């Protein structure tokens, strides 16, 4: 053999051996880090198997979801022009909120609600109140292939319809029926409580948001009967429970995250190359290079997996902690750990702070709504608003909720005459004097209910 060729081969062998040793060291270090991430999950008492978070099956005779699904089929089959009822109400609330839909649009809605199929669907939803459980029998073992989209579309669609129905009944002076609709809407909104996915919990937040808007608009001009008031307060109180949000974080990790990371090494290499193609805007040959790169990318895969597990563990801990007790500087560092070169952690891990803030904003809106209704009921019983929240008639509200953003009492002022201002300090945790938030998604201003407007 040519001596020069022999030297080249020896050098290449040495380089290959060095590279292999470096790869082996990184593989071992990444494996150790992954095992530590799993150990941290177990130490934090987080569920480790999908069976631990799957809801128990509910017999059809006790399951409100069966009635909701039948109602949705009726609404999908009924046409308003060229659209079904679900799309019609969705477009209406795309341009307006429940509280700001103009009278002429509500007048257009009136004949829609009088359609036989719509009335039948509303009756089915109302029947769901009498059933003790609600489960949609989703096959969570499918992992990343499981789809909750049909359930999401159904629940949001029916919630829109009920919120608009309550608003129209308010305009028509049918207060008692409007509060009956509100109770059905709250029961529906809470039906996703036990579904262990984050998207289901975000939809639940949206459903409560629609209903709270309708409650405040209705509460401006009428109050529920005592029995209805108790039902409304009980259903609103359920949103204070942080467990559904924690289960959503754990469920996303076990159902989607672990399914993605448990795929073959070639699939991970394909994901890395596809992410690189998106960033560069140029072809990266993922179809051909994913096989030879599957082995070399194993250390990156382990590091990606470990980072994802750490973020989801800390996210679940934050989800279960009241907002006012969260160290926001520390929590923001959670998301900063997700580097762009960790493709699965970057794409799968949710914005933990944004999710927590969104949930807490709805908690604040619910708290303001509960206390606002109690203030109005106190005035109905005693002729005047209480001087402060501690003097609300305990027969009406025994335990007054605190502001979830500050951990302190909601801010309340009885106005001269016939009104009050009640508010939470909002996400900026700053008292802006009862000035409402300036727009959707803005962090300025307070979360306010003011009577009169």
What is the 3D shape?
elongated
| Structural class based on helices, strands and sheet pairing | mainly alpha
Number of helices: 16
Q: Give the biggest sheet.
A: 3 strands, antiparallel
What is the number of E strands?
Answer: 5
Query: pLDDT average, as an integer?
Result: 87
Beta-strand residue fraction: under 5%
**Beginning-to-end CA distance, first to last residue:** 94 Å
The whole-angstrom Rg is: 27 Å
Low-confidence stretches: none
Q: What is the percent of helical residues?
A: 55-70%
Q: Strands across the major sheet, in which order?
A: 3-4-5
Give the arrangement of secondary structure elements.
Blueprint: H1 3-43, H2 64-77, E1 79-80, E2 83-84, H3 85-95, H4 103-113, H5 116-127, H6 149-171, H7 175-189, H8 198-219, H9 226-237, H10 243-261, H11 265-280, H12 286-289, H13 298-319, H14 328-336, H15 343-348, H16 352-382, E3 411-414, E4 420-424, E5 447-451
Antiparallel strand pairs: 1-2, 3-4, 4-5
Structure description:
- With 453 residues, the chain is mostly helical.
- Among the domains are: 3-43 and 247-350, no CATH class; 367-453, no CATH class.
- 59% of the residues lie in helices and 4% in strands.
- It contains 16 helices and 5 strands.
- The protein has helices at residues 3-43, 64-77, 85-95, 103-113, 116-127, 149-171, 175-189, 198-219, 226-237, 243-261, 265-280, 286-289, 298-319, 328-336, 343-348, 352-382, and strands at 79-80, 83-84, 411-414, 420-424, 447-451.
- A 3-stranded antiparallel β-sheet has the order 3-4-5, covered by helices on one side.
- Strand 3 and strand 4 (420-424) form a beta hairpin.
- Helix 2 runs antiparallel to helix 5, helix 8 packs parallel to helix 16 (352-382) and helix 10 (243-261) runs antiparallel to helix 13.
- The longest helix is centred in the first third of the chain and has 41 residues, at 3-43.
- The chain is elongated.
- 40% of the residues are buried.
């Amino acid at each position: 053999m040519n001596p020069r060729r022999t030297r080249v081969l020896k050098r290449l062998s040495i380089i290959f051996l060095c590279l292999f040793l470096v790869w082996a060291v990184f593989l071992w270090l990444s494996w150790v880090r992954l095992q530590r991430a799993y150990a941290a999950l177990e130490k934090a008492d987080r569920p480790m198997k999908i069976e631990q978070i799957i809801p128990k099956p509910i017999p059809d005779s006790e399951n409100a979801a069966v009635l909701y699904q039948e109602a949705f089929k009726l609404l999908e089959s009924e046409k308003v022009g060229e659209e079904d009822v679900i799309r019609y109400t969705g477009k209406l609330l795309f341009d307006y909120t429940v509280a700001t839909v103009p009278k002429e649009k509500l007048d257009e809605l009136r004949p829609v609600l009088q359609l036989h199929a719509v009335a039948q669907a509303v009756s089915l939803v109302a029947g769901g109140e009498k059933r003790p459980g609600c489960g949609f029998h989703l096959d969570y073992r499918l992992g990343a292939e499981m789809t909750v989209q049909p359930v999401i579309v159904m629940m949001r669609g029916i919630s829109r319809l009920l919120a608009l129905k309550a608003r129209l009944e308010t305009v028509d002076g049918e207060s008692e029926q409007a509060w009956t609709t509100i109770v059905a809407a709250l029961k529906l909104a809470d039906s996703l409580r036990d579904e262990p996915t984050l998207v289901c919990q975000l939809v639940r937040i949206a459903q409560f948001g629609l209903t709270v808007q309708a409650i405040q608009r209705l509460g401006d001009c009428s109050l529920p009967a005592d029995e209805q008031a108790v039902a409304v307060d009980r259903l609103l109180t359920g949103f204070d429970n942080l467990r559904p949000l924690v289960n959503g974080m754990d469920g996303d990790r076990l159902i989607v995250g672990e399914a993605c990371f448990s795929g073959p090494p070639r699939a991970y290499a394909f994901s890395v190359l596809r992410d690189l193609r998106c960033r560069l805007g140029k072809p990266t040959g993922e179809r051909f290079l994913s096989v030879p790169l599957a082995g070399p990318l194993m250390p990156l895969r382990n590091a990606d997996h470990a980072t994802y597990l750490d973020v989801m563990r800390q996210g679940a801990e934050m989800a279960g902690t009241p907002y006012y007790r969260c160290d926001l500087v520390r929590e923001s560092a959670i998301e900063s750990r997700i580097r762009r070169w960790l493709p699965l952690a970057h794409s799968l891990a949710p914005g933990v702070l944004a999710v927590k803030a969104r949930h807490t904003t709805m908690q604040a809106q619910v708290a303001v709504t509960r206390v606002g209704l109690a203030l109005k009921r106190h005035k109905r019983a005693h002729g005047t608003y209480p001087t402060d929240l501690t003097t609300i008639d305990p027969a009406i509200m025994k335990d007054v909720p605190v502001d979830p953003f500050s951990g302190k009492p909601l801010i309340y002022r009885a106005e001269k005459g016939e009104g009050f201002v009640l508010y939470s300090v909002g996400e900026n945790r700053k008292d802006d004097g009862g000035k409402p938030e300036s727009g959707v998604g803005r962090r300025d201003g307070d979360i306010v209910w003011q009577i009169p407007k």
